[in-house]
Amino acid sequence: MLVSTTATAAAPDFYWEAPARLSRGVGAYPQALRTAGRVVAIWQENIATTERGSAWLSLASYGADGGVARRDRFAGPFVYSGDAPVLFSVAADGNGTMVVAVSSGELSISIYRSKDGGVSFEAPVVIETLEAGVAPRIFTKTGGGWYLFVTRSQVFSRPQAGAAGSATYESLSIFYSRSEDGSSWSAFSPFVGGEVGLDPNFLPTAASTDGADIVVFQTLSGGDRPSYQLYSTTTTDGGATWSAPRRVTDFIDPVQGARRAAADFDNQRPHLALVGGSLWLTWERRLLSGPAQIYAARLGLDGATIPGSPERVTLGQGNCSEPRIFSIGGAGSSVEAEEPAISWFDDRRGGSRVYAAFRAGTLWNERDLSGRSQGDGAFGRAVYAKNGLYAFWQTGRGATSSVIGMIPDTTARAPDVSGADFEPGAPSRRSRANVRWAVPPDSSGILGFSYLWSRDPAAEPPKTAMILETQTRAAFDADADGDWYFTIRAQDYAGNWSP
Length: 499
Fold this sequence. Notes:
Layout: E1 20-21, E2 27-35, E3 38-48, E4 52-62, E5 68-81, E6 88-92, E7 98-105, E8 108-114, E9 125-128, E10 134-140, E11 146-159, E12 166-179, E13 189-190, E14 201-209, E15 212-221, E16 227-235, E17 246-247, E18 265-275, E19 278-287, E20 293-299, E21 311-312, E22 320-328, E23 339-349, E24 351-360, E25 363-368, E26 378-385, E27 388-395, E28 402-406, E29 417-419, E30 432-437, E31 446-454, E32 467-468, E33 473-477, E34 485-492
Antiparallel strand pairs: 1-28, 2-3, 3-4, 4-5, 6-7, 7-8, 8-9, 10-11, 11-12, 12-13, 14-15, 15-16, 16-17, 18-19, 19-20, 20-21, 22-23, 23-24, 24-25, 26-27, 27-28, 29-30, 30-33, 31-32, 31-34
């Protein structure tokens, strides 16, 4: 088992059903969250033509009882050009409301709200925009309500060396809108001022804690060696005003300590989340000449990196992409019991596979999530619930891509039983019966069996393993006339008992 230090730590024990395909057509870009007591996976279904394509959104919503509700193509079609981009974003407010934001047109964004974990949706709210924007990203804000971010062109100004005036130019930049209820939205405003000089800027990620909202975003810093850097900004008034952006990737690297300049590293694709009462940030980081690795750090309420907290999660194997923070241990337990975990995908084995690292103390312990299925894995997402860990990812690319789901193992099948020397249900003169059974298939493996030989047709064997799965035969005395009954149940390594 791989860890990020020389010590070892135990990874959480998770057991899953066999991975299953969720998308019925071409599926891509899964996202997942927990809301309204359910775990919801949403993905994009794309149909491409020569110049334009159409996309729909579909979902699978898993209840605590193990049942699943599907909503195939609950939103769409939405038209796109070229390769299919990510058209949607999803967030939940912790009070049972889930909101999906999707680019529904060149000048429109549609908001879909659900209060039952995606089983049903209200009529969409359509936000009309004056200028085209891409990559909508939606987040909750402290005290209730939502932020919606898009990326579009913005006019910047920069002083000219040896000239009295400033040069103006256009560059990609983040714009945002606010809503208290998800229905009424403010006009889009620039998130980063045109005079700040942090252009282009994009890929915002946000989290809330203690009355403050913190946003981290990516920008391309200039200079002799342009590099991607991450900046943060905060608000305590619901987004009316924001603090001046501050760089969060200017720390001394814990692994590459000899490279002390921030510009020696590229930092991309940040993801911020509140876990265990702390703000955790994860992102891709690489030396300008090396493969990207997954890093993590904690931020303070001012958006600054907490000294000593940055750490490299991965071990330098392969090129790593798309990290996502999620919490372990917080489903129904105290916030303090939560520990951070991170999912990502990398190509250490040639094709890409999805991994997760679980933190215990100061250690990160890896598990291969997508390795149980055939094909590659990318865009991994994981959600922890009381009954275990749900994992989702994309396999394949373009017209051959599909979305795979792997849910907690909560069932076990009963063994098939037969008489070795008698016909079940038929009279017999024998005073001894030999019974045999088959080990049922199980994704987690069968641990053992419990059985009962009695005169009572309603009697059930105890839920205590009596024999291991290697024993599949037993003999019993039938020392009295009349009916005798043999019942058996199996227990798998996930702890499930068969009926």
